[in-house]
Amino acid sequence: MRRPLELYIHIPFCARKCLYCDFLSQTASEMVCHGYVEQLLEEIGCQSGYYQGYEVVTIYIGGGTPSILKAEDIQAVMEAVKKNFRVDRGAEITIEANPGTVSREKLEAYLDCGINRISLGLQSADDRELKTLGRIHTFDEFLKTYQRVREAGFHNVNVDLMSALPGQTLSSWRSTMKKVTMMKPEHISAYSLMIEEGTLFYEMYHDHPELLPTEEEDREIYYASKAFLREQGYERYEISNYARPGFECRHNIGYWTGVEYLGLGLGASSYIQNFRFSNEADLETYRKINMRGEDADQRLHQNISELSQREQMEEFMILGLRMSRGVSGSEFIRRFGLNMWNVYGDALHRLQENRLIEVESPWVRLTDFGVDISNYVLSEFLFDREPD
Ligand code: SF4
Question: How far apart are the CA of 203 and the centre of ligand 1, in A?
């Protein structure tokens, strides 16, 4: 039996840097992009040797903006993956794309090389909010892209949205929701904006939180989304993700349930046989690595750490509880040979008494109240937590 493996392939280029973005992405010339792809192909060819006992069950080409690359570059990446890895015939293969970078020709090329899911970055259907975020597109441009995606023949489409934006109100959010659900994507992700250090937004808003919606307003948006999306046929299956039945993102579910994943490309993270590591994150240094050299792995892989059993249990709880179905006590025993209630009894009883989790044996899941303060609830499963 081959072990299941997820592949994440990072494309670190964007047309312009959004003002809130702290992802590993930058603008670059066509030549730099192409040079990067050549190096990525080398990495795929050389690293795949370690994974012959695996079967790739999902592939996620993310960024950055992968759709900024030429169609033939994406095709070359997919060909290299298929040539070097064993890919399950039913694998879910996603590409991230942003309006303004997607032509009909590119979409057809994606479908031709086996990509069967597309994730479109919209964030908001309000042009004023899009401008505030520094996005390169308007809602109208998004609509045209969406139509093109459907006409090309994609049957599994995600739309990314973002709440807690500067100037956003419950009514502008509702209007975004309405406009998006009218288009009937199969999947909607709705994350709250995080103000990250090192971004322009940090300079603009870190000392002026009064310019952003309050946490209460964001929770109101969350509840409004959940209720409205359910009416429209979308179930929340993870704190920030909604899908029509059968269209939950398999790749992300893999992350939350401990499936091994290999990250390829600049800065990409991996989790293999209880080891976490990430690729070199400096573009120039990454490009200079001789992927066939004897020291390639040392130069490519950074921050290598082996997870102890306690850390694996923490991850099992913290990532698993993000999912609406929760975590299963039977699965805990299968993985760790221990009873979840013996390991985490105190925390579980305390959280249950405070109605932050609910138990439906063997499942344990967050309640709505638990989701509201999920950072606190999830931190209860850290062994070396600072005492309250
Ligand atoms: S498109 Fe995405 S990755 Fe690129 S700058 Fe904007 S938020 Fe960052």
Answer: 18
